[in-house]
Amino acid sequence: MDGAKHMDLDKYPEFLVGQSDVPLVSQVDWELTPRSVRVTLISWHHRLEDQQGQLEALQRRLEELEGKYRADSKNSDKPRFTDSPLRKKKHKNKGKLGAKKGHKGHR
Q1: Which of 50, 49, 54, 82 is nearest to 68 (CA)?
Q2: pLDDT band, residue 7 (cuts 50/70/90)
Q3: Tens digits of per-residue pLDDT, 55-105?
Q4: Are 10 and 48 in contact (CB under 8 A)?
Q5: What are the CA-CA distances from residue 67 to residues 23, 70, 73, 76, 85 (Å)?
Q6: Per-domain residue ranges for the chain?
């Protein structure tokens, strides 16, 4: 609750104004709200802001790592030897193996 200590608890918080500039809680209701509830609400708001920042940083990091994971010699400038040996190459099935009809070796 240290974030709330630095804020004037009597002043109406900006985060209580909705997207269309309509207050989520009236000024009168805010003034009637017990001090302990105001402190808790403001502290939760600060915690939420911090977590949103962390989430955005983690999402950027995830996108970066996924981009590196998908990169191989076919879609980047990486050399072929850096490709994962676990990724199987897809072989196109061009028909049955062996001699084809009409060829001398066909039975």
Answers
A1: 82
A2: low
A3: 999 999 999 988 877 777 777 777 887 777 776 666 666 677 777 777 776
A4: no
A5: 42, 5, 13, 10, 18
A6: 2-74
Q: What is the DSSP letter of 9?
A: T
Amino acid, res. 52 = Q
What token pair was written down for 61?
Answer: 């990091």
CA-to-CA distance for 31 and 35, rounded, in angstroms?
9
Which helix or strand (DSSP H or E) is residue 40 part of?
helix 35-70
Of 57, 56, 76, the closest CA to residue 68 belongs to 76
Alpha carbons within 13 A on the beta-carbon side of 80 = 1
Higher per-residue pLDDT: 84 or 6: 84
**Euclidean distance between CA atoms 29 and 54, whole angstroms:** 32
What the block records as the tokens of 45 is 């708001």
